[in-house]
From TrEMBL:
Keyword match 4Fe-4S: no
Keyword Transport included in the entry's annotation: yes
Primary location recorded for the protein, binned into one broad class: membrane
PANTHER family in the record: BLL6183 PROTEIN (PTHR30069:SF39), TONB-DEPENDENT OUTER MEMBRANE RECEPTOR (PTHR30069)
Taxonomy of the source species: Bacteria, Pseudomonadati, Pseudomonadota, Alphaproteobacteria, Hyphomicrobiales
Domain TonB-dependent receptor plug: 2-103
Source species of the chain: Bradyrhizobium brasilense
The name this protein goes by in its record: TonB-dependent receptor
Length: 730
């Protein structure tokens, strides 16, 4: 993908552009916010949501930007205007930890690659207003580039999912015949409103309804990176970088709660009549809330400072008279995180489900809720080597590997939870081998095998005890050992071109198959204790993601068309018994009526991964100044999260059609417009189960929202939205 692919002529944000252009990619949504969606590729995920098992490594200018606390990727930090190119790579160990499903590499602009200046303003549905400016240039051997973006989006859901985006990117560079040096800075301060999945019965009444709020996330970034490229000779070169990344996240989430009136009704308890302060038998909290319906406001804050760098040598000397390309390098990444969390008892407004804090903070470790103050340090070291050797002018072989060593230490700062203290070490050597063969000048066959590993994140290690579950995205309570995930990928396919003149046009195409078997995959599991907010992480044995990918692009005269299709078969390969308190098909433990579980068999499909994905689009240059185009995105059905035995009805498949147009008034001024979901389709991006029965009252049995009896909850897709803008270049 090039900078033109990220133009707002085609899409309103970075993720929509990636989804439109890259085969095999779909977008998931856990937050209801367009700036905070999941990127899914081959059944693996890069997500901004803490607690989501991650499987894709993301790089910006050579720096891995998966945050060190939970490996999350904050897409809202990336200034779209400053993007020069994006490339998506399948499983390759050279990209280090977390690349078990692939890696996304983002290269930013600089004054050598972009000259001129541009201003843009666009807006439209749901209060969207966004503006940007960028400028770049060079004088002799010195370059400078800067981009600034600001956006506001009210959001289309009720109450809760507005976005305030402010971000910038600055690069200063210098070069001569042998050396190029850059220092760049990425800064952001973004306030994002989130909405959780909503019960299907509420969506049937009102498509924009939300289920408990507020849910807001404040994200801030200061990221400095220095890069150096130096050519020692025509065949030897050095590439290196050093960076510092300061990341701050503050999250506020209104939820239901397990707090209820104790048996006597005069005090408040949680779980099995445990007082919400201190140990069992300790002082109870007087019940002064009358008949108010109870919730809680969960707050957490992560402050991470990380730094590191990479040093790499490349050599292109011939070997035995054949072309040969060697890459060798070492990388070190160190992170230091302070994580704090609290849970405040709240009351729920029966009219809009807003949760208001009461000033009473819940402290009951035996029920999984207690203030958390944790320090986590992690150091990731990697050493890698690859060699591409041209056996003939048609046949090339690549072989190599990478050794990863991960050190992760957790230290409780409260002095009350020694179970969180731990020192974890993971190491592995991952090989890669592959080859390409040019059958004809326009037809190439490729095949390869590779392995990659992912160490558990500090967040996953701190929330992995079934006996002490935590509020996902908020709390950490104890630290049993987790194993690292190891993936084994085989892939093969063909790619080629046809035609290359004005009459026949140019067709490029590709078709391939992949097979990724993961050992000790880490999954997030709902706890049998407490509400649906509680959970923990565990190893789930082997999982398999396999499928096929096909794509084509065709250009002729004034026409440009593309189409691609991906099939993914994602299954468990090991048997598992998983708690499933909200799954209507769960079994009941004969020894404990309060515990419900499911038995996952080898061959059961992994929830949340659509099997079929199809994208197509066409664009026509009606005049030298006017373009019109349309895109369709089809996503197949998927199992609900929590339906790991595949017994309930699937999340339905959906198809969305988008239109776009642009008109160049002068060589330097252009207007553009786009319509998303032009047929105003109602569709679900994903779904899960939740606990029915309503919210508990401080003075009575649960009854608020008790009419909601269907345990399915969904994230609805955005209705029809229209946008228009103007762009001027100077």
């Amino acid at each position: 993908m090039t900078t033109q692919d990220f133009s707002h002529n085609y899409s309103t944000n970075f993720l929509d552009a990636v989804n439109r252009k890259l085969p095999g990619v779909t977008l998931g949504d856990q937050t209801g916010n367009p700036f905070q969606r999941n990127l899914d590729y081959r059944g693996f995920t890069a997500s901004p949501v803490q607690g989501t098992p991650q499987g894709i490594a993301v790089y910006q200018n050579g720096v891995r930007i998966n945050e060190s606390w939970g490996d999350v990727v904050n897409w809202d930090f990336i200034p779209e205007k400053a993007i020069d190119s994006v490339a998506l790579f399948p499983n390759n160990p050279v990209f280090g930890l977390n690349a078990i499903g692939g890696a996304l590499s983002i290269q930013m602009k600089n004054g050598f690659t972009y000259q001129g200046s541009e201003a843009e303003l666009f807006g439209g549905s749901y209060g969207r207003v966004q503006g940007s400016v960028q400028a770049g240039g060079q004088r002799d051997n010195i370059s400078a580039y800067a981009a600034f973006e600001s956006a506001y989006d009210r959001g289309w859901r009720d109450y809760a999912n507005s976005s305030h985006i402010n971000r910038m990117y600055v690069d200063v560079g210098a070069r001569n015949d042998d050396t190029e040096f850059h220092v760049n800075f990425t800064g952001a301060s973004n306030l994002l409103g989130n909405v959780a999945a909503t019960p299907v019965q509420m969506l049937n009444q009102r498509w924009s309804s939300v289920y408990t709020w507020p849910q807001t996330t404040l994200l801030q970034l200061a990221f400095v990176n220095a890069t150096l490229n130096h050519n020692f000779s025509d065949t030897w070169s050095f590439q290196g970088n050093a960076y510092f990344r300061g990341f701050r996240q503050t999250h506020v989430d209104g939820n239901g709660t397990d707090v209820h009136a104790c048996d006597g009704g005069d005090s408040l308890c949680i779980g099995d009549d445990l007082p919400i302060f201190g140990p069992a038998g300790g002082p109870s909290v007087p019940n002064t809330l009358g008949n108010a319906f109870l919730g809680e406001v969960d707050r957490n804050r992560a402050a991470t400072n990380s730094f590191g760098g990479t040093a790499q040598l490349t050599n292109s000397d011939k070997l035995f008279g054949h072309d040969n390309h060697v890459v060798m390098g070492v990388s070190v990444d160190h992170g230091n995180t302070k994580f704090t969390a609290t849970s405040e008892l709240g009351t729920i407004d029966p009219n809009n489900l807003f949760v208001t804090g009461t000033g009473i903070f819940i402290n009951q470790p035996d029920a999984g809720l207690a203030p958390v103050d944790l320090r986590a340090t992690n150091t990731y070291t990697g050493v890698y080597l690859t060699d591409t050797f041209d056996v003939t002018n048609r046949f090339s072989v690549t072989a190599g590997g990478r050794f990863n060593y991960a050190q992760i230490d957790l230290q409780d700062q409260t002095g009350t939870n020694d179970q969180l203290n731990s020192s974890n070490r993971f190491q592995r050597l991952n090989p890669v081998i592959g080859g390409t063969y040019k059958i004809t000048p326009n037809l190439t066959f490729y095949a390869g095998y590779s392995e990659a590993n992912r160490a558990p994140t500090p967040l996953e290690l701190g929330c992995s005890d079934p006996a002490r579950p935590c509020v996902i995205d908020s709390f950490l309570v104890s630290d049993p050992p987790l194993k690292q995930v190891v993936s084994h990928t085989i892939e093969a396919g063909f790619r080629g071109t046809w035609g290359n003149d004005a009459r026949t046009g140019m067709l490029s195409w590709g078709v391939g198959a992949f097979h990724t078997l993961s050992d000790d995959d880490i999954i997030r599991v709902q706890s049998p204790i407490g509400t649906g907010n509680f959970g923990y992480f565990q190893n789930a044995g082997q999982t398999l993601r396999q499928g096929i990918e096909a794509k084509l692009d065709y250009r002729v005269n004034r026409w440009n068309a593309y189409a691609n299709y991906t099939f993914i078969d994602a299954t468990y390969r090991s048997a598992n018994t998983l708690p499933a308190p909200d799954n209507p098909n769960a079994l009941t433990d004969p020894n404990n009526d309060d515990v419900r579980f499911i038995n996952v068999k080898p061959g059961d499909h992994i929830p949340g991964i659509p099997a079929h994905r199809f994208k197509a689009g066409v664009e026509y240059l009606a005049t030298d100044a006017w373009k019109v185009g349309a895109d369709i995105n089809v996503v197949g059905s998927q199992w609900l999260i929590g339906d790991d035995t595949n017994q309930s009805q699937k999340v339905p498949a959906y198809a969305v059609v988008n239109l776009h147009t642009s008109y160049r008034i002068t060589p330097n001024i252009e207007v553009f417009g786009l319509i998303n979901n032009v047929f105003n389709q109602h569709y679900y991006l994903g779904g899960a189960f939740y606990e029915t029965g309503g919210f508990a009252s401080a003075g009575a049995a649960p009854n608020l929202m008790a009419q909601l009896t269907d345990p399915r909850t969904f994230v609805p897709g955005m209705p029809l939205a229209a946008y228009a803008g103007i762009r001027a270049k100077f």
